[in-house]
């Protein structure tokens, strides 16, 4: 740009733009720009630019999942770090079909969560790679992470092998019993079952095993299915019973159905008595198991105690609290400890949400009053937060993204009481394993820890995972 005339005391703005192709090398670029002055001295301006190519550093570019059973999910967490001086925006595009729609889960062995992000200089993010084999074979895949303003993609090489459970019938799967007279039980053939896999298996008859039939009915009614009709549940060991959450929901629906049938029978009995000119039986003031039923009345229990026959005496019962930084594997440790010793794995949010749902074991007057008070406090906090976000949105000039409510402020005494009521259920007969201190119902993890200590009357041990000796 040529400046023809610049009056005394005036200024002119000159914009200098530096361009460089995406495939050029990184580094500093310098230019000595001489500004000539007509009738005066020339000025030398040194222009310097530092060209930085946005990039990510992966904690591991190759991930080996090993052997995973078909239908199960294994997750591995990797770290993304931005060591460049500029922000980095990245994303991963999951495979799609020819119509541009995402492939269903049974057609993709690997998935990445989250699938996009933005990192400032020096920031770190954790992403989870999941492997779900749907066949007994080896799965190789490369996930390409696209980086804005970088023509090169970050490649994540994944490897895993799917194993299938199977059983062999020996010496043959076909037997000829021949002719036999009615009532004769002497015509028999023996066969053996062989497990050729490296995993323990449970064998049952889908036609005659009553537990299997009941479990299938419960799974049909379970609400935790995704849009693809898939539900993710904890891995069960060989011989383990139905998942507690599935059994609880199924038993709840069964009790509701029994109450409806009992009410219908009473209605018919009263109608028949009135039609026959007899005095009808007295009408019950409330339904069995209704909202006003006190614990210990004739309503069905929340859990069947016979499903948890092993009970550790209170004096010998030992519970654990597993703590650690995010994505350190503490949830896996908590789940493994719970499965090994028959303890119940819980989180504080699960305990509070269970109590707020109005379970049968919390129908005493004091429990109902506490539940109503906590629900009112929760609703009031959410309403105030929504009003505050609306005020911020009205003041904002551009697009405003509302922030979710970070946490509620339930007291230590209230949460400790809810913990005591929850661990009194039969599924906690051997103790509990608390998975971390993160909760949306308390103001800090310190308060959460205090609530757990107060709520567990038995002995408690604290286990640190991934703390590197700073525990």
From TrEMBL:
<feature type="domain" description="HYDIN/VesB/CFA65-like Ig-like">
    <location>
        <begin position="54"/>
        <end position="160"/>
    </location>
</feature>
<keyword id="KW-0963">Cytoplasm</keyword>
<dbReference type="Pfam" id="PF22544">
    <property type="entry name" value="HYDIN_VesB_CFA65-like_Ig"/>
</dbReference>
<feature type="compositionally biased region" description="Acidic residues">
    <location>
        <begin position="280"/>
        <end position="296"/>
    </location>
</feature>
<dbReference type="InterPro" id="IPR053879">
    <property type="entry name" value="HYDIN_VesB_CFA65-like_Ig"/>
</dbReference>
<feature type="compositionally biased region" description="Basic and acidic residues">
    <location>
        <begin position="247"/>
        <end position="272"/>
    </location>
</feature>
<keyword id="KW-0175">Coiled coil</keyword>
<keyword id="KW-0969">Cilium</keyword>
<dbReference type="GO" id="GO:0005930">
    <property type="term" value="C:axoneme"/>
</dbReference>
<dbReference type="InterPro" id="IPR033305">
    <property type="entry name" value="Hydin-like"/>
</dbReference>
<protein>
    <recommendedName>
        <fullName>HYDIN/VesB/CFA65-like Ig-like domain-containing protein</fullName>
    </recommendedName>
</protein>
<dbReference type="InterPro" id="IPR013783">
    <property type="entry name" value="Ig-like_fold"/>
</dbReference>
<dbReference type="GO" id="GO:1904158">
    <property type="term" value="P:axonemal central apparatus assembly"/>
</dbReference>
<feature type="coiled-coil region">
    <location>
        <begin position="371"/>
        <end position="398"/>
    </location>
</feature>
<keyword id="KW-0966">Cell projection</keyword>
<feature type="region of interest" description="Disordered">
    <location>
        <begin position="247"/>
        <end position="310"/>
    </location>
</feature>
<dbReference type="InterPro" id="IPR027417">
    <property type="entry name" value="P-loop_NTPase"/>
</dbReference>
<dbReference type="GO" id="GO:0003341">
    <property type="term" value="P:cilium movement"/>
</dbReference>
């Amino acid at each position: 740009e040529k400046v023809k005339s610049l009056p005394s005391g005036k200024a002119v703005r000159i914009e200098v733009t530096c361009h460089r192709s995406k495939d050029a090398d990184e580094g500093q670029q310098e230019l000595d720009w001489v500004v000539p002055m007509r009738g005066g001295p020339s000025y030398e301006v040194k222009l310097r630019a530092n060209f930085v190519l946005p990039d990510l550093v992966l904690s591991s570019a190759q991930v080996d999942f090993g052997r995973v059973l078909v239908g199960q999910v294994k997750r591995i967490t990797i770290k993304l770090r931005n060591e460049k001086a500029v922000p980095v925006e990245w994303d991963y595009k999951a495979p799609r079909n020819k119509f541009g729609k995402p492939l269903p889960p049974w057609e993709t062995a690997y998935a990445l969560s989250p699938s996009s992000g933005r990192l400032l200089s020096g920031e770190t993010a954790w992403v989870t790679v999941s492997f779900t084999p749907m066949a007994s074979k080896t799965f190789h895949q490369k996930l390409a992470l696209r980086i804005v303003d970088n023509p090169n993609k970050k490649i994540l090489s994944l490897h895993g092998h799917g194993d299938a459970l199977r059983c062999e019938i020996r010496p043959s799967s076909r037997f000829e019993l021949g002719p036999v007279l009615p009532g004769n039980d002497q015509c028999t053939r023996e066969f053996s079952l062989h497990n050729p896999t490296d995993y323990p298996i449970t064998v049952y008859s889908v036609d005659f095993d009553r537990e299997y039939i009941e479990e299938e009915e419960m799974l049909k009614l379970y609400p935790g299915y995704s849009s693809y009709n898939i539900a993710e549940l904890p891995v069960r060991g060989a011989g383990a019973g139905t998942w507690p959450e599935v059994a609880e929901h199924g038993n709840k629906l069964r009790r509701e159905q029994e109450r409806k049938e009992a009410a219908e029978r009473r209605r018919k009995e009263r109608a028949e008595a009135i039609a026959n000119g007899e005095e009808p039986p007295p009408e019950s003031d409330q339904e069995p198991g209704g909202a006003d039923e006190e614990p210990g009345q004739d309503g069905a229990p929340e859990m069947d105690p016979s499903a948890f026959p092993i009970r550790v005496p209170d004096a010998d019962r030992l519970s654990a609290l597993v703590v650690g930084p995010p994505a350190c594997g503490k949830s896996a440790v908590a789940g493994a400890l719970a499965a090994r010793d028959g303890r119940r794995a819980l989180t504080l949010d699960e305990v509070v949400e269970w109590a707020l749902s109005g379970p049968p074991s919390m129908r005493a007057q004091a429990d109902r009053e506490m539940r109503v008070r906590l629900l009112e406090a929760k609703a009031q906090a959410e309403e105030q937060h929504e009003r505050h976000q609306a005020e911020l949105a009205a003041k904002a000039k551009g697009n405003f993204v509302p922030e979710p409510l970070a946490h509620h402020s339930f007291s230590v005494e209230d949460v400790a009481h809810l913990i005591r009521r929850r661990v009194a259920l039969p599924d906690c007969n051997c103790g509990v394993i608390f998975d971390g201190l993160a909760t949306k119902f308390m103001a800090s993890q310190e308060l959460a820890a205090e609530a757990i200590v107060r709520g567990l009357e038995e002995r408690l041990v604290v286990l640190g995972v991934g703390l590197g000796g700073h525990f």
